[in-house]
C-alpha cells in the first residue's frame, strides 16, 4: 500500500488535497501540519496527523518517515519559501520518500511574475534532488477574484492595471483534485501546466454583473495610478507595488495558457468563472 503525505494540510489547498485523497479511497494518508489541533477532525477520520513546520527540517523528517509520495504545497511567504521548500526536500530524502509533487506557478520558467523566482528555484532544487518529481504549475485561483465579490458589488467596479491581459484560472478544489490525480498516477508527466477558462478583468466585471444583477464595470489604470489607488485603500507602498506588478504580469500574458492539462487530470472541464461567482454569491 502506498502512503501519501500532504504538507501544509491545514491550509486551503492542502486540506482540499487531503479530502481528494480520501475521496479516491486512499486510507494511508498523512497530513503534515504546523498545528495538529487545527485538523483534529481529520485524525478522527483516520488520517495520520503529524506535526511539521517548514522551518524545522528535523520535525519534517520525522513527519515524513514511512511516506512514499509527498504533495509539497508551496509556502505562502515570498522570499522565505525557497529555504522552506529546501527543508521539505531534504527531509523527504532523509525519510526515504520516493516521489514529490510540487504546486508551483503557471509557466514559471518564462514568467515575469514577481512570484516566479521562488518557484523556478524550487523546481531547480527538486530536479537536483534525485527524487522522482512532478511539477504542478498552477495558474490563478478563481477565489482570488471571488473573494473580492462584495467589494466589487459595493464599488460597482473592478479596479486594476491588467489592461486586456487574460487569466486562465480554476478553483482551488480543481487544483487539489488534479494534484492528487498526478500524485497517485503510476506514470505522471514531469510537468503539468494547470489552468482553466480564460477571461480578462472586463469579462470578470461582466460576469459579476450577469450573475448578481448588479452593474459592475472594469476601470483600467496605469501602473502608477493603480499603486496610488491601492495606497489610498490602505496598502503600504511595497504591497501596493507588488499587487500592481502582478497585474503587469497578467497584462504580459503570464497567466494565459491554452494547455488542457487540468481537464485531462480531472477527467472533466474545470470550474468556470460564472460557476465560481455563483458559488461565492450563494
TrEMBL record:
InterPro entries from the UniProt entry: NAD(P)-bd_dom (IPR016040), NAD(P)-bd_dom_sf (IPR036291), NmrA-type_oxidoreductase (IPR052718)
Lineage top rank: taxon: Bacteria
Every NAD(P)-binding domain range: 9-185
Pfam families in UniProt: NAD_binding_10 (PF13460)
The protein's name in its UniProt record: NmrA family protein
Biological classification of the source: Bacteria, Bacillati, Actinomycetota, Actinomycetes, Kineosporiales
Amino acid at each position: 500500500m502506498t502512503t501519501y503525505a500532504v504538507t501544509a494540510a491545514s491550509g486551503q489547498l492542502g486540506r482540499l488535497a487531503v479530502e481528494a485523497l480520501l475521496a479516491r479511497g486512499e486510507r494511508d494518508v498523512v497530513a503534515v501540519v504546523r498545528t495538529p489541533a487545527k485538523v483534529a477532525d481529520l485524525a478522527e477520520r483516520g488520517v495520520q496527523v503529524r506535526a511539521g513546520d517548514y522551518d524545522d527540517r528535523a520535525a519534517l523528517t520525522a513527519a515524513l518517515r514511512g511516506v512514499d509520495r509527498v504533495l509539497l504545497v508551496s509556502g505562502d511567504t515570498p522570499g522565505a519559501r525557497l529555504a522552506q521548500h529546501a527543508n521539505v526536500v531534504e527531509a523527504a530524502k532523509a525519510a526515504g520518500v520516493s516521489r514529490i509533487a510540487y504546486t508551483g506557478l503557471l509557466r514559471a520558467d518564462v514568467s515575469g511574475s514577481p512570484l516566479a523566482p521562488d518557484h523556478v528555484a524550487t523546481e531547480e532544487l527538486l530536479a537536483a534532488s534525485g527524487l522522482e518529481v512532478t511539477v504542478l504549475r498552477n495558474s490563478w485561483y478563481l477565489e482570488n477574484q471571488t473573494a473580492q465579490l462584495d467589494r466589487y458589488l459595493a464599488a460597482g467596479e473592478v479596479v486594476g492595471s491588467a489592461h486586456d491581459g487574460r487569466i486562465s484560472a480554476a478553483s482551488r478544489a480543481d487544483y487539489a483534485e488534479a494534484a492528487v490525480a498526478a500524485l497517485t498516477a503510476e506514470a505522471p508527466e514531469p510537468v503539468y501546466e494547470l489552468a482553466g477558462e480564460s477571461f480578462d478583468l472586463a469579462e470578470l466585471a461582466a460576469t459579476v454583473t450577469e450573475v448578481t444583477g448588479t452593474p459592475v464595470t472594469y476601470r483600467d489604470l496605469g501602473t502608477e495610478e493603480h499603486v496610488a489607488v491601492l495606497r489610498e485603500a490602505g496598502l503600504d507602498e511595497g504591497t501596493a507595488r507588488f499587487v500592481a506588478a502582478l497585474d503587469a504580469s497578467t497584462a504580459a500574458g503570464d497567466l494565459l495558457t491554452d494547455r488542457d492539462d487540468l481537464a485531462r487530470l480531472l477527467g472533466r472541464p474545470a470550474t468556470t468563472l460564472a460557476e465560481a461567482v455563483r458559488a461565492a454569491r450563494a
